[in-house]
Amino acid sequence: MPKADPQRSCLACRTVQDKGELLRFVLAPDGSVVFDLLQKLPGRGVYTCIRSSCLQAAAQKRQFSRGFKQEVHGAQPDALHSQVKERLEQRVASYISLANKGGKVVSGSDQVLDHLKKGGSGILFVAEDTSPDIAEKFRGIARAHNVRCATLFDKERLGALIGKELRSVLVVLNSGFIGSIGVELEKYRNFLQEERE
Ligand SMILES: [Zn+2]
User: Fold this and answer.
1) Would you tell me the crossing angle of helices 52-60 and 77-101 to the nearest 10 degrees?
2) Distance (Å) from CA 94 to ligand 1 centroid
3) Which of 66, 114, 127, 154 has CA 20 to 30 A from 196's CA?
4) Residue 157 Cα to ligand 1 middle (Å)
5) How far apart, in whole angstroms, are the C-alpha atoms of residue 139 and residue 124?
């Protein structure tokens, strides 16, 4: 049995949860608020739910200064929202790159279509700037084969992650990366409070 996670409360709504179910923030030496994705940075930590609304409410109510018991910088609602969103995206991005290095990515419309139609598994990524009808076509086929979908990054970034030109779609194949990517995607969606597939 893993050791029980200590519990902390959200700066905004005060809900008490396991630390791992919250976002952790620490203070940098210059007094700015830093999102501690891996919950390993030293020093006092303060927490919010994995929800942008709690994070922004905490910032608006100046709860970061209260929590750290000093004046803090960089705790504007928008700045914190962007910081967390970018870190969560980077995390997913780095797993896609790693999977690609391990030969566990299929990309390119034809190849992805082929993979999905053969009943392929994995997680389908659709670039945010893919035209809606094409995006929906891929999502439909993925759903029909019980392949999980995520709409994330633009074509340029999706391609760059695997060392290629623009990519509208790619699939991370079943591998050790799938579980981790799933966890990170879940966090990302929770944070943005998204319902979309
Ligand atoms: Zn909360």
Assistant:
1) 150
2) 28
3) 114
4) 31
5) 8
CA 148 to ligand 1 centroid distance, Å: 28
- Residue whose token pair is 């709504």: 13
In which residue are the tokens 């060392």 written? 163
Whole-model pTM over 0.85: yes
Angle (CA) 146 129 86, round 5°: 85
164, two tokens: 């290629």
Structural domains of the chain, with CATH:
7-75 (3.30.1230.10), 94-192 (3.30.1330.30)
* Tens digit of each residue's pLDDT, the chain (197 residues): 566 789 999 999 999 999 999 999 999 999 999 999 999 999 999 999 999 999 999 999 999 999 999 999 989 999 999 999 999 999 999 999 999 999 999 999 999 999 999 988 899 999 999 999 999 999 999 999 999 999 999 999 999 999 999 999 999 999 889 999 999 999 999 999 876 44
Strand partners, 151: 126
The residues that bridge with 7 in the sheet, in sequence order, are 18
Classified as helix, coil or strand, 41 is: coil
State the distance from the centre of ligand 1 to the C-alpha of 23, rounded, in angstroms.
10
Ligand 1 center to residue 192 CA distance, Å? 13
